[in-house]
Amino acid sequence: MKDIFIVEDDALIAMLLEDMLADLGYRVCASAPDLERALAAARDTEFDAAILDVSLAGQSSLPVANLLDERGKPYIYATGYGAAPAGSSPSTLPVLQKPFQLSELEQAMKRLTEV
C-alpha cells in the first residue's frame, strides 16, 4: 500500500499531511478539497487507501466513505471533532485526531493496512 488519496479542505493541512506521508514512504496520488471533487476522484482514481477529513467546509465526507466502501478501498478519518461521522461503517477505524504527530499518522497507517 503506497498510493494515498487525501480528502482535506484545509490546504495547509493537506500539504502537511502530504509531507508527512512522504516521510513515511507513501505517495499522494490524488487530493480533493471539497465533496464534489472528492467524489469524482474517489470514483475515477486508482489508489491504495484514503485519508478523509470528516467535515469538508461544513459538508460530511460520509458520501466519499460510502463510495470507498463500495470500491473496497480502506480509509481512515482525520478529524478535530473526535469521532467518525454518524452512519460510518465500523471499518473506518482508526480515527486520526487532529492535530496529530508523525508517529500518530504512522501508527494509523499501520492499523489501516491491517483492516
UniProtKB/TrEMBL annotation:
GO molecular function: phosphorelay response regulator activity; transcription cis-regulatory region binding
GO annotation (BP), single: regulation of DNA-templated transcription
Listed PROSITE patterns: RESPONSE_REGULATORY
A Pfam family reported for this protein in Swiss-Prot or TrEMBL: Response_reg
SUPFAM superfamilies tied to this protein: CheY-like
The UniProt record lists the keyword DNA-binding: yes
Swiss-Prot/TrEMBL keywords: DNA-binding, Phosphoprotein, Two-component regulatory system
Gene3D superfamilies named among the record's database cross-references: 3.40.50.2300
Entries under InterPro entries matching the protein: CheY-like_superfamily, Sig_transdc_resp-reg_receiver, WalR-like
A cellular component term, taken from the record's GO annotations: protein-DNA complex
UniProt modified residues of type 4-aspartylphosphate: 53
Stretches assigned to the Response regulatory domain: 3-113
Protein's name in the database: Response regulator
Record organism: Rhizobium redzepovicii
